[in-house]
Amino acid sequence: MSQPYKPKHNQNRIIDAKKNTKQTSHLGGDFSDKLTAYRDLHAHALFSSLGRLVASKVNAMLTIIVLSISISLACGFYLLVQNVQQLTADLETSNQISLFLHDDVSLASATRLANGIKLDPSVQTVRVITKEEALKEFEDFSGFGEAIQALEKNPLPIVLQVVPKNSLEEGQNIETLVENFKQAAEVDFAQLDMQWVKRLQLMIQVAQMSVALLGVLLSLAVLFITGNTIRLELHNRKDEIVIAKLVGATNGFVQRPFLYSGFWIGFFSGISAWFIVTIMMLILKQPVEKLSMLYHSSFHLLFMGFFETAVLIFISSSLGIAGSWVVVRLQLQQLKVL
């Protein structure tokens, strides 16, 4: 029997499809091989640089210690500002105006004055502190209880504690409110208690700027120290680099081990800095909490959280890589191998 007829153009399509399939498979294999080779080169550079760092124990240890101390200084100041901010956040809830009344003002007159102040739309709450309550608070918090009891007459006046609305956001209005309170015949002296808190907040802002400037300076120190360490390693491997370039090594191949060395230096420095700061905070934790208990406060020291620790290690590692990259580029240009 004769074979069925197959058009030539269909046969050509089948042949072309097979060729395209082989070419696609070949291209996919090349990409996979390149990706595997790229991964292996980076893995080799990563662990070989770690091995060289471990081999030079003294130099590596001294470099990491110096860097970790520098980084821990910046982190320590940062935590100091964070803890002070926590303190001022608690103080902001006690924003008030204290009105000290004349000694001859009776409790009934003070109560009438407090009720009149409550009608002011800019006032949130008013509390009347009697002479006896003021004396009791003074005995409890001053430490001069025996001396106070020896007095024949209570020297403390009646005090009205006025809490205004949005006192931190309306500074000019609260000052006007204080001036109005001073006009009352019963008021001897008016004190705006939030003024010193505002001064403390301004000092914290200055401290935050100082921490930022200190962080920049210490970052430059990390760059220079890491760069100098990599420069010494590059100088020791000068002949190896020249030979590698002569046999066709690429710039990336030459630079890669030094960049990973900078990464390891920054990485271990960041971890060491975290341990230094954490140990310091643990040492201070108990004395600070005892001090806060004496002032009937629930203040607790803030430590570095997970996110802050991750940022610390990321920044220190990035600084190590950046310092290595700058020095390697400059040194290799001087060697005429780039």
Radius of gyration: 36 Å
Number of helices: 10
Range of helix content: over 70%
As residue ranges, the low-confidence spans are: 1-11, 21-28
Strand order of the largest sheet: 2-3-1-4
Overview of the structural elements:
This protein has ten helices and four strands. The protein is an alpha+beta fold and 338 residues long. The chain has two domains: 42-91 and 199-334, no CATH class; 96-192, Alpha-Beta Plaits. The chain has a four-stranded antiparallel β-sheet with strand order 2-3-1-4. The longest helix is centred in the N-terminal third of the chain and has 48 residues, at 8-55. It is elongated.
Descriptive keywords:
338 residues; Alpha-Beta Plaits; 2 domains; alpha+beta; single chain; 7% strand; four-stranded antiparallel beta sheet; 4 strands; 10 helices
Q: Secondary-structure blueprint of this entry?
A:
Blueprint: H1 8-55, H2 57-92, E1 97-101, H3 107-118, E2 123-129, H4 131-142, H5 145-149, E3 159-164, H6 171-182, E4 187-192, H7 194-236, H8 238-246, H9 251-294, H10 306-334
Antiparallel strand pairs: 1-3, 1-4, 2-3
